Amino acid sequence: MAERVEASVTDGESTIEERDRELMREFEEGLDQPMDEEADMLKDMHGEKSFSMLMLLRLSFQSLGIVYGDLGTSPLYVFYNTFPDGIDDSEDVIGALSLIIYSLLLIPLIKYVFIVCKANDNGQGGTLAIYSLLCRHGNVNLIPNQQRSDEDLTTYSRTSVAEGSFAAKTKKWLESRHSKKRALLVIVLIGTCMMIGDGILTPAISVYKTFFLTVLSATGGIRVNNPKMSSDIVVLVSVILLIGLFSMQHYGTDKVGWLFAPIVLIWFLFIGATGIYNICKHDTSVLKAFSPKYIYLYFKRRGRDGWISLGGILLSITGTEALFADISYFPLQAIQLAFTLFVFPCLLLAYCGQAAFLVNHKEHYKDAFYASIPESVYWPMLIVATGAAIVGSQATISGTYSIIKQAVSHGCFPRVKIVHTSKKFLGQIYCPDINWILMIGCITVTASFKNQTEIGNAYGKMYRTRGTAVVVVMLVTTLLMVLTMLLVWRRHWIFVLVFAILSLVVELSYFSAVILKVNEGGWVPLMIAAISLLVMFVWNYVTVKKYEFEVHSRVSMSWILGLGPSLGLVRVPGIGLIHSELASGVPRIFSHFITNLPAIHSVVVFVCVKNLPVYTVPEEERFLVKRIGPKTFRMFRCVARYGYKDLHRKDDDFENKLFDNLFSFVQTETMMESDSNYSPYSFNHRQESRDELIRNNNNNHNKNMVMFSSMVDYTESAIVPADSPHSAMSFSQNYTVEEEEEDELEFLKICKETGVVHIMGNTVVKARKGSLVPKKIAINYVYRFLAKMCRANSAILHVPHEALLNVGQICYV
After folding, report:
1. Where are the bilayer-spanning segments (predicted)?
2. CB of 481 within 8 A of CB of 499?
């Protein structure tokens, strides 16, 4: 009987404890609610920029120099790499031409220009832009720092999927396990890293291409197979050209585009006109290559050799992968206009012209392009081709800047300096750190080929090397597009299946051809990508763990409010900005700060700079401000939201913008206080729950209140007495009714003029004891090195050194 009574009492206590925990949870939520109400008060003043036809033509012209230089110079070397051992049958030329035609039609034109480019995130392209779309339409983000207020942004576009649909099942499957989210991110990073590898390889290839055109040329054409040329001369000339190319990047996309665009424009006009000339002069029957049956006949005749030659055909579409990444620099309409009406027709004419020449002159397979040029325009063509060859690498350089910027915002790459080079087009950027890293990588790759016995061998080997990177980027893009069509566009699964099959058949065919050449240089982009992937994965992994550490170690808001308006300290003149990654809750560094120092500023603002998976956040919607606790506490929260196009690293006036929004909030709050339904602080929303909780604690669980009181007493013991020298620093030791009723806005302005201090956490990350050796190396050495090399948050936000206070803490992962 006694046991049953004891069990009944225990069950009753357990029920009361569970109820109290639920009330405490609701109470905590009431103390620091999400900023949904503040977000609803922001009005949309942002609109998409429209372009006149004249502006589109101008941007289309500029895009030639930035986007299409690489793709446009492919006719220089495609046939040579397709038939490195010579041409046995004229029909093989027709088959190769047919492959080139349909490769250009299916991949650059249909897949990229008219399908993939439409998956841009409001003008931002690349694999990470697609990943941002997926993060908004599915819960796949590894850092769960988003709130409902973020979804109210003008630019936070998303669509819902119908319950029971194939898209809904796919979404549920993708969100079901953390490992699937991690796998998706790894796939995205692989594509991104391959793009970076392409950015290193392409400039090195361009200088080799230029070297052929300027040094190894003669009046009869290119002498590609010149074994007498010293490799040291090749490397020296290449290094000089690379230094010159990367040194002009700081002028910005706009100026570089105006410089390079005329060269590429003349180049396309030249190759188009030459193609027409060769078709009319040599053999008009090559136009039959538009029939796909010649592809079948080509593989039937050549067998395995024909399949391997796909590695050379692939070079006709290199540069396409950079086209999508470069879409941030120009409007989609400008890129579509330039490619469809100008670039695509000129390329078809150029390849058809070369094929017409080769049908009757098979011995010129090595120098088909120059041998087919009319003698009267040979030297002008050589000069233009030299300039176009240098320009060819600009697409991948600009694309690398764009994807690095996105990777930084997604927490997948160390913070680097990013400079906006145009006031009109914010997408045009320059990354000094990345620029010089690319240059060093290009010089290293170029020097690694100097031991080739023939320059021609090195030339062909470098192109085969690049093919691996290009086709992997295309495969990753296809996989991401399948998810985008299902979750974002909500296309029928049959349409998605057709797209996937057509894309994968073409791209896997190319991949099977280039993978056979891994031992001939194809390992180079794989090695570059592996190093980049290690950097990105380690940085993202630690970033996620640091955020989880912040969330788990945050301080209870009820504890802060229990300290009273003075927070148990002397409130000294000025404003303290407490920086953390938390959009709700009190960061651990704040409790660490107030338990070790006897004073805190009269006004405390918790600042969270948050990157969202959107391309931009309109300026008028960027800052969310709310009050924490009663007015006498003088505590606020400010969340600054940025998209990956904005980059708060551009905000030189971040502090003033923050205070402008804080002052506006106080003014708005004052005007709305007359509304009986308006609560100036979220504490009132849960007043009844708090009273009931306290009553229960007093009656049934005094031990909880003792613990709560002990925390208050402990902190209050740190209050500086009235006769202390520190008391002279405070103009509000005791919060009186008169102070509460004074003009708060004037009070805030006085505090700002008195001084602003930025309090930031200096978190040292270490691997836990007992961790595996690879994890210790990754965290204790790789991450620590990257953290020392990257830009500090204080530098990003332009915090003066004299106004910075770092609070140290250790995070064990």
Report:
1. 51-69, 93-114, 183-208, 228-246, 258-279, 306-325, 337-357, 377-404, 425-449, 469-489, 494-516, 522-542
2. yes
Per-residue pLDDT tens over the stretch 746-781: 888 889 998 899 988 888 899 988 889 989 999 999
Q: What is the pLDDT of residue 341?
A: 93
Beta bridge partners, 624, equal 639
Tell me how many helices (H) and strands (E) the chain has: 35, 10
Would you state the structure tokens that stand for residue 271, as one six-digit string?
């190759």
Q: Kind and range of the H or E element at 578?
A: strand 570-580
The predicted model scores a pTM of 0.76
Longest dimension (CA), the chain: 114
Rounded-to-integer distance, Cα 475 and Cα 107, Å:
11
The one-letter code for the residue type at 44 is D
CB 184 within 8 A of CB 176: no
3-state helix, strand, coil in the chain (%, to 5): 65, 10, 25
* DSSP secondary structure of 432-465: HHHHHHHHHHHHHHHHHTTT-SSHHHHHHHHHHH
For the ranges 197-211, 240-254, 489-503, the lowest mean pLDDT is seen at: 197-211
Q: The tokens of 21 are what?
A: 């925990």
CA 724 to chain centre: 53
How far from chain centre, in Å, is Cα 459?
Answer: 32
User: Beta partners for 806?
Assistant: 760
CB 12 within 8 A of CB 700: no
User: Are 253 and 428 within 8 A, CB to CB?
Assistant: yes
C-alpha 246 chain-centroid distance: 22
Cα–Cα distance, 606 to 742 (Å, whole number): 23
CATH architecture of 74-155+172-542: Up-down Bundle (1.20)
